[in-house]
Amino acid sequence: MQIVIAFYAILWLILGFDTLRLTRLVRLSNGWRAPVAIVSVLLTLLPVAGAAWTATTVGVLRGAIGDIFGPGAPAVEPVDGRYNILLLGADSGPDREGLRPDSISLVSVDAETGRSAIIGLPRELQKMPFPRSSPMHEKFPEGFGVGPSVFGDGDGCLTTCYLNAVYAELEAAPGREVYDGLYPKAESQGSSPGIQATADAVSGATGLKVQFYVLLNMKGFSKLIDALGGVTVTVKEPLPIGGDQYGNNVDEYIQPGKQHLDGHHALWFARSRYGSATGDYDRMERQRELQAAILAQMSPTNVLLRFQEVAQAGKSLVDTNIPNDMLGRFVDLAAKAREFTPKSLNLVPPKVDPAYPDYAQIHKMVKRTVAKASPPKEEN
Length: 380
Known about the structure:
Elements: H1 2-22, H2 30-68, E1 82-90, E2 103-110, E3 116-121, H3 135-139, H4 166-171, H5 193-206, E4 212-217, H6 218-227, E5 231-235, E6 239-242, E7 250-254, E8 257-261, H7 263-271, H8 280-297, H9 300-305, H10 307-317, E9 318-320, H11 327-337, E10 343-346, H12 359-372
Parallel strand pairs: 1-4, 3-10
Antiparallel strand pairs: 1-2, 2-3, 4-9, 5-8, 6-7
């Protein structure tokens, strides 16, 4: 597209000035020379300028797609008629030992209709069973951190044994050499052993096979919201920016009510957990509310007006192993998905005790939710 646009822009430029030459301005009366010259130049340069802007925009889009969607995993077919995508929201920083996702969701999308179900998993979830096909099953045959395991008969692991610590368990924790050799193809598929192990843990916990992952960097999330001109959400309670569980060193509060937030404040709307009745679980709900608000307010006009800023923010926002050759399929599904309200299931108390989860019961809950997000069965 860039080459074609550039070719026609150069051709138009040549033809425009050639037309100006053919008009032979010297033969026109003095009163007409300037208007004809000005109109001719404008009709020549304005389309060329538009073509240059379009070519630049296409280049930005091509660069963003290339940076975000690499070769990654090979194209795959849906499992039981659905695509299952692991969505991780994480803050990276020098004060963190490896990547520890603050938000973990599994999005299951019907491959024909786009109907979707969103399964929210608490980061403190424990004892996740690994599928038998997973190399982590050999290390933890009874569940993550449950003995007997690679560490002996007792319970334990190198980290907290929470779901959000699986990545650090393989890639950042001291003593991680015990996992050497696991997931040898992860890098070539645009992933990493920590991400693959986390995907296997979510597969075991939910009973749905994870096929792809999307990692959202929360700092990039802030840039995206700024690029879109902010986002409007409803704040239900005062939310502190900064501070600790005792209310010390709070910079300011996001006040209740309908608020239009910039990237910084929207990030804290999703991140803040102190002061909420159920802490992390309230935060999980706000994160999903923010995601829905961004999608609802991301109109084509809004995106086009700030396209380059949005594309640049996207590069720092998203890391994924969804390959280029599946983008068309997912774009079609995204368009269809807008016609349906996603079904939601949060695996939090009182439904689920993260410390003592009943995974057989969780699998039934997930199955019921997915059934609600499936097309109705045709009657014979």
